[in-house]
Protein 1
Amino acid sequence: MPPIRRVVIAGAGQGGVHTAASLRRLGYDGDLTLVSAEPSLPYQRPPLSKTFLRDPDPAHIDFHDAAHYSTLDTRLVLGDPVTTVDRPNQTLSLRSGETVRYDHLVLATGSRPRRITDLAHLRNVFHLHDRDSSAALGEQLREGRSMLLAGGGFIGLEIASAAADLGCAVTVVEQLPSILAHAVPTQVSDFLLDRHRARGVRFRLGRSVVAFTTDGDRLASVTTDDGSEIAADVVVVGIGSVPCTELAAHAGLKVDDGVVADTRLHTSDPHISAIGDCVRFPLAGRPVRLTSVQHAMDSALHVAKQITGRDAPYRPVPWFWTDQAGVKVQMAGAPRAEHDRTEFVAGPSDAAFAVRSFLGDRFVGGVTVGMPREHLAMRRELAAS
Ligand SMILES: Cc1cc2nc3c(=O)[nH]c(=O)nc-3n(C[C@H](O)[C@H](O)[C@H](O)COP(=O)(O)OP(=O)(O)OC[C@H]3O[C@@H](n4cnc5c(N)ncnc54)[C@H](O)[C@@H]3O)c2cc1C
């Protein structure tokens, strides 16, 4: 294959920015273009459901200032998304009409929140994902409004936690009988539920929203399947994410709940890789889509290595963290997906413990609460197995 001299990265989030930095660190000295759909400087998303709700200072979440991208000799295109990819000619078009050539294209288009379309147009309904939606939600929460959260996943519960800390009356409606049911062992789910309740968050578990009323362009109340009506000033929908695959699908790449890639993160076109939230790739023999900072960073580094001639399969140890109800919870491997038994490890206080999950005798993943060293030990153990 001829040498790669023009790399374009579509998407300037966690994965895209890390791809650019990794390429330069690994000695890539060709053209580098980082294209962002968003008009602002690239920023981190994890604080959006945590500290940014209290303190919406952009300087706290930007990855770098504008000068940094010049130092990296990277052309940063802001507010001008990639609209089409012409694979036979290895060019892509931006919304502004500009055409850009590439030898290798990295798709780092991320994911977006799953929406309840009937509610999306209402002014007090939030599907939190970007800087603007977090800033607008934070403004409401800092005024101590009542908040209803539909869905008890990680991001939603972080928002519920921040809202309770800001003095809001918070109700969570979750259709499963426990929170984070698919993600963490029961001991962790029960522990977090107690912590949230102790901080004043109310839960309606095993209930779904079946109807709602509006007042002009605002949502006024929701009705759950047991006939209860819950009124709230602000409604947050936290029911998961969907990968941004439109660009890939339009370009004729294989897409199946994510841009389909092989163990090297090559898509069905060898000149195009996919990373981060948008890619579905084989891990331990199963196709997976991971949505975490760890995977965005690791897959970015992996693709940068591929582009600079270091070929290897991508075999990450997945890990993730969440800050909620006053504790840091860290996960490594697959603590919940499949296990035969769990082992409880007591920590130095009531608010610190770990749960290890096993498939037969094999350690497959674990969750720690307030035990960062145990988390690192789990990651090392999983990497070595
Ligand atoms: C509120 C929130 C809290 C989170 N908290 C945590 C946490 O505590 N721990 C953790 O591990 N992970 C967390 N995550 C997940 C983590 O932020 C993501 O997994 C990570 O950002 C994925 O990186 P990415 O580069 O794939 O996508 P993103 O960072 O989402 O970036 C994708 C970018 O691509 C742009 N884009 C899309 N289409 C185009 C196009 N056609 N042209 C140009 N640009 C395009 C998008 O606008 C976006 O800017 C959180 C996510 C959110 C939303």
Note: The chain is about 25% helix and 30% strand.
Protein 2
Amino acid sequence: MLIAFFQLLSFTPQDYGAIENYIPYEFSSYSTHPVLTLKTILHVVYRTKNDPRNIMADNMDFINQQYQWVNNSYKNLKPPTLLPENKVIHYVPDSRIRFRLDTILIHYDSIAWDRIYYGIAMNGSFPLKIDSINLEKNEVKLIGRWESVLNSRGDSLSIGGSNKNNGVYHPLSIYSRENNTYIVMKEPLKSKDSSGHITYFRKIDKNCWKDNWEKLAGSDKNAIHIFYTGATSSQPAFGCGPSPYFLNLSKLNLNGDYASASLTAHELGHCLGLRHTNYPQFNDLPARDKFGFIPCDSTTTSNNIMGYNKCRNYLSPKQIGFIHQKYSNDTALIRTTANGEFNPLNNVKIKWNKTWNKATVISGHLIIKPGRTLTIKKMVSMAKGANIYLCRKSKLIVDGTVITNNHGEKWGTIVLCKSYRKKNRKPYRKIIYGKIIYKNGGALKNHTN
Ligand SMILES: [Zn+2]
């Protein structure tokens, strides 16, 4: 039982290896713990061309500042203000997670723009037929007991289908007597003609909907699509990050600039798989975290990016490790990263014998120095065109896993060489060629030839 419990804590079902292996500590090498860069596409949705009611898409000062603040909050984390139950300070200063702006697209679409609005409810028993109108009391009578339903549905009612009384009304009081309901209106009723019906306004909340991602991004899964939108409803800025492929941010034009960046950092955290911290997702988080856009402190309210506090400048090592674990193993999610783009500045040189027990995404060449052995026990994702250089007498052991490309491309090839400096020349004698050894079904995939 104890063993089973331990395994539950240490391994995900897919056996990605422990979260702890993925935490980028200050001393962790960038070879094994590279910076994870998420590609983002920004969609600025104007209500109409003449009345955008949004951030302007050419406002690069605003947009660049937003990315700078968001990246800074993931790069320069502060220590936690509120500690977990065991009072240990769990702290990594840099999450090694970044967001890159690749494209800005403009859309003119009032439906896509309006994320929260009110519609006239036409569902269930609604609209209700008006029975009679008492002009002296400015009161509408309905058959049936609708008091509690109407009281719970907001503060505006709509009369339609009437000759004279059509319009929006605010009830002063709603009460039931016998089997009838009476609504006293604030605005004067114009006629005692009882034709027409009455209903409430239903809040339509598309904050977390996927319609914009489907319609404006073609359900693309190669980046995170960020939608700047608006809303007819009167509430302040809001957002939702329900998917690894998109998030919505509404009313940033009416919000504080830094508050918008803080909201964006939080929603991006959701996109990457983090949950709220009111209850801990990982055991290095506090047992409780008070919510409500209040200052952070050391007794009730954390400074976690995934909390509702005014600080939002901390992520726990396991929150960070969890993201790196997902984005090193999940072959669909890896496609949203820029880590598959070849960059020779990110060459990985194996200077000592090493065993990799975590999945690793490499964007440069992998070079195993003369005489050294690298044992790979979890998937290695190579960039397009990147090679593996096996210098003389080196060994690459692929043990029960694959070396592959997860960006729909092909990585390069295995190059046998004397040394990386003499990478175009093979060693003189075959016996000292570098070797690749496959164990437990280990294999190369998606490589050239
Ligand atoms: Zn949230």
Note: Residues 118-204 form a domain with the Elongation Factor Tu (Ef-tu); domain 3 fold (CATH 2.40.30).
